[in-house]
């Protein structure tokens, strides 16, 4: 039997496709404008549907339907790019915009449906914070789009309605897909790589559309070509990425984190409204004050809403931390710290005159129970005991987990009543278990530490007496002398 090969593994089909597309894109940029560059441009665009087919066959993502629809939309985009370069090779009817615009425009709904189909396998909803983030980013980009694309072409609707709709549809559809992709990208970093690559591709295509509208085919032509090539490459990388097969629901709604990258994106989007006015001045164009005013107002409102959501999340987190600081996570009872605080309040100097009795409870042979049945069974016993005893607490009683299998009971009652209460608790203790207890009554002057020490000594006496019983701590010496005198 031949030994397994230890040499380098041959590159996979995905690596070959991406490398070939990148080389073709580089060659397209190096070659002078002409048929050869146009052909390479079309070949790079065709890498998108080829990559979609390759990703489906190699990674078999589930569900397949979303990637099939997405690949179909990318195929229409590739067809539009191929038709777009046809004038270099054959005469085409002048003014027939639909020859290349129609495949592009028809591809948008398919790509959007595919992105939504794939994204719904991540999280059910991005949460209120995620929705506001998407609104901030898309609103900022919309101000720039309106000022430089939509508003300058409004007067064309009366002269060439079809052409005007086609020209304006690109940035509007880019923004819609961008909002969808940004919202879908709020997932775990590993599984979100394809969605973030899609977002980068949409940003590149939006940059190309805006650059074309700002500069025309002259000085901005090379920028447009570069942006579209970047878009083609990132979409190809997205649909062939191995993580495409691992997109699953990752967590509940509202778990979007405000990372540094997200905060940077929100800050940049918030500056787009005043930045639009600055760009208009730099280009010598007339500033549209209402666009800037409305854009700044919308963005300011969204930022306030995001701050409110963030403050609410911080408040909920603070409340959760406060709960954890005073609660035993296993049983849900107050923890030792909370028990000490309750005991200190009940035994405060001004509380003298009211009866206060404490009892320390210890489950008998708990270590043996854990060793024979396992720690999960021991945890279950602790939870069941806590539930059973808590349900039988008298008014004003306080039960806390003191540590391990020990519990502290604090009652505003004399020792005799507490002893009767513990007798009922023994019958209610689940799984036939027993407990030992030591009780101590407060004399109105004794420090809390001394009171707990007397109850602990009584508990030790109960264990020494054979367990499953209660022992009472004698009164402190000072109280006995006062009673004797």
From TrEMBL:
Segments crossing the lipid bilayer: 38-56, 68-90, 102-119, 131-150, 162-183, 195-214, 220-240, 261-283, 289-314
GO CC field: plasma membrane
Pfam families: GGDEF
Gene3D superfamilies reported for this sequence: 3.30.70.270
Coiled-coil intervals: none
GO molecular function: diguanylate cyclase activity
GO biological process annotation, one example: cell adhesion involved in single-species biofilm formation
Record SUPFAM superfamilies: Nucleotide cyclase
Domain GGDEF intervals: 354-475
Sorted UniProt keywords: Membrane, Transmembrane, Transmembrane helix
NCBIfam families: GGDEF
Identification of the protein by name: Diguanylate cyclase (GGDEF)-like protein
Natural source organism: Kineococcus radiotolerans
